[in-house]
Amino acid sequence: MKNLKIRINEDPEVWNRFICKSPQGTVFLLVDFIIGLSTPYVLVTLYDGDEIVAGTTIFFEANSKRVIKEPVLFMLYQGIVLGDFMDRHVHSRISYEYKVVTYFLEKLTEKYDRLSFCNSWKLNDVRPFQWCNYHTPENGQFEIKLRYTGIIDLEKYSDFDEYLSKIRILRRREWKKASRDFVVEVTDDVNLLLDIQDKTYKRQDIELPEQLRKYRYSIVDNALRSGFGMMMKTTGPDGVVDSVKFFLYDNVCAYYLFGGNNPDGRGSGASTLLMLNFIKDAMTKGLKYVDFCGVNSPNRGDYKISFNAELKPYFVTNYVKGRALPIGDNS
């Protein structure tokens, strides 16, 4: 691996082209999206000769040069991404990717005192994280946390009607009933989403700080203005908005990021109506997947799976220099 070299502060246009070609590339890694997070960052790439073979984003605490210790809030898949090596034989590709990620992590852990990655479900070889500083654990090791998301593979269905026939019967009933009772419209009213989402949190006895509201507003507003986000609402015959959902898009996938439902309209089926409209829209756009961006709580997880989503594991990997894990962890 003599030709490998790291570049800090990669050119944004070069970075975006790499992300669009990477199997692990997502909208969460595009520069226009990252800017909306209002979080200090650097783009780091690894070259093999003249070719970018890996990359990642490093995020820092506000007004600090210290790397954040957990993934950026609400964000997924801001981890290690690789070049497209699918034209290689399997044994060759796995071996090469392992060496690339191992070298990349070695250099990153030399430069930064801590690191935090939320890796794509398409990055399924976590051995480089498990074995980082394997023989010198006192130098620091990665803590690896298993998470799950729900993925709908849209290419499995010839059309929306076929897809609809595969989801849970209750969801089809809600779709049919809500289609009669509600009007679905695209909206750009970010405050409408946040207000109804805050009501959802309040019903669960969760009160979010005002700063977090501003953060969510920045993410959604930036995505809508940049053209890689869409928001829809349902309105009942009484003129009341019952559900609002926000999705992100790249050229492969639609991502369900935020949503909220009027507590007074629970059981109306409006949420299901919106979800299925977004899935239908993703099919119309010719996308390959719909990603529910996490199924890591019992109630919401089962709701998302009921749309015939497949479970996909992904890994959050956190490193602190000098932290050795107890024997047996991540083994």
Q: Can you describe this structure?
A:
This protein has 331 residues and is α+β, with helices and mostly antiparallel strands. It folds into two domains: 4-147 and 315-320, 3-Layer(aba) Sandwich (Aminopeptidase), CATH 3.40.630; 167-307, 3-Layer(aba) Sandwich (Aminopeptidase). The chain contains ten helices and twelve strands. The chain has helices spanning 12-21, 31-35, 90-111, 127-130, 160-164, 169-181, 190-203, 210-226, 270-284, 298-305, and strands at residues 4-8, 41-48, 51-59, 81-82, 114-118, 142-153, 183-186, 229-235, 241-249, 253-261, 289-291, 310-320. Helix 6 (169-181) crosses helix 9 (270-284). The two termini are 26 Å apart. The model has no long low-confidence stretch (mean pLDDT 92).
Topology:
Layout: E1 4-8, H1 12-21, H2 31-35, E2 41-48, E3 51-59, E4 81-82, H3 90-111, E5 114-118, H4 127-130, E6 142-153, H5 160-164, H6 169-181, E7 183-186, H7 190-203, H8 210-226, E8 229-235, E9 241-249, E10 253-261, H9 270-284, E11 289-291, H10 298-305, E12 310-320
Parallel strand pairs: 10-11
Antiparallel strand pairs: 1-2, 2-3, 3-4, 5-12, 6-11, 6-12, 7-8, 8-9, 9-10
